[in-house]
Specification:
Helix content: over 70%
Number of helices: 14
Strand content: under 5%
Structural class: mainly alpha
Length: about 325
């Protein structure tokens, strides 16, 4: 499968940061620290204005499915991340281990979780509910989880200030968008493509700025090329393990195929759209920020490829089931 354009753009941002790091540092001529903060606020304001409360309420009743999804996102993932963080001590640099744990502590995606669920003929209303709730919970739970290991990796991360910084940067604009939705929601929904472009543009700025800081600090000279291979393998192992476990749990609980699809896709995905802004808020101008977000960038591409394949297979299975039912029950 081909790499999508957004991933190519991220690779381009990384290459530009390696070539001209001085341009995107915090005190550089672009002032990306301030620009990205403003951009994050605008994007989350638009997300709030675009979200339909009725669509969220429609999928709220299936509590067993929701427990599986959020248990995977905020219990299973962090447990695996903690095992890797402490188990690989002495084998991988602290910032790399923190990046892997940070990936595990993030919320699920919204757009791609719902899209993959729809392609796989899953429970779309439940996916909308779970993905939205996951993003809101992540604004509190991600800083909480990261604070448990950050002291070991890069120094102490004050919990309450960290949560407040995330909430005022992400949640307050989101809430403002929800409040103004009756007046601007229609306009934002009709121009959803532009909202998506703004979202991705801000992520590219964060990635570029993070890698500029890391390059200026000479961070990349500390790692052998094999380190990137190890990170990629760990990311693939993490994704495969969670997909297998969410599938197994769904079947043990007797979920129908539609709910299984939702559990697998919402429970195994991690949000770059939330992860990049939260990383910028939590770790600020830390020169290791580029390495901290690198596992998330790799996971983003891996989940797109793997979940696209799974979604098509689920769709084919649903089509076969429908054809069998039509054959057994002719009109």
């Amino acid at each position: 499968m081909k790499i999508d354009g957004f991933v190519l753009a991220m690779l381009g941002a990384v290459a530009l940061a390696l070539a001209m790091p001085w341009l995107g540092t915090g005190d550089g001529p672009l002032h990306l620290g301030l620009v990205t903060t403003i951009g994050i606020g605008i994007v989350f304001f638009l997300h709030g204005a675009a979200l339909s409360p009725s669509a969220v309420r429609a999928g709220a009743a299936n509590w067993r499915l929701h427990l599986v999804v959020h248990g995977s996102t905020f219990l299973l993932f962090p447990a695996i991340g903690a095992a890797l963080f402490f188990g690989l001590k002495g084998m991988l640099a602290p910032e790399i281990r923190l990046g892997i744990f940070y990936l595990c502590a993030l919320s699920s995606t919204i757009s791609s979780s719902v899209a993959m669920t729809a392609i796989g003929r899953g429970n779309v209303p439940a996916a909308i509910f779970d993905a939205t709730l996951s993003g809101l919970l992540g604004m509190v739970l991600t800083p909480l989880l990261v604070s448990l290991v950050a002291k070991t990796a890069t120094g102490h991360l004050p919990l309450i200030p960290a949560i407040w910084d995330v909430m005022k940067t992400l949640l307050l604009p989101f809430a403002a968008g929800q409040l103004l939705r009756p007046w601007i929601g229609g306009f934002v929904t009709r121009n959803k493509a532009w909202t998506s472009k703004a979202d991705r543009f801000v992520i590219l700025l964060i990635v570029y700025s993070a890698f500029c800081e890391s390059t200026e600090a000479g961070l990349w000279s500390r790692y052998a090329p094999l380190t990137l291979v190890v990170i990629a393998l760990l990311v693939l192992l993490l994704l495969g393990s969670v997909i297998a476990l969410t599938t197994l749990v769904s079947r043990l609980l007797g979920f129908n195929r539609a709910d299984e699809v939702t559990a697998v896709f919402c429970g195994s995905k991690k949000s770059l759209a939330n992860g990049a802004p939260i990383a910028r808020v939590l770790f600020g101008q830390n020169p290791a920020l580029g390495m901290i977000v690198l596992p998330l960038m790799m996971y983003h591409q891996a989940q797109l490829i793997v979940c696209s394949i799974l979604a098509r297979r689920y769709a084919e299975k649903a089509d076969r089931e429908t054809a069998t039912e039509d054959a057994l029950n002719p009109a």
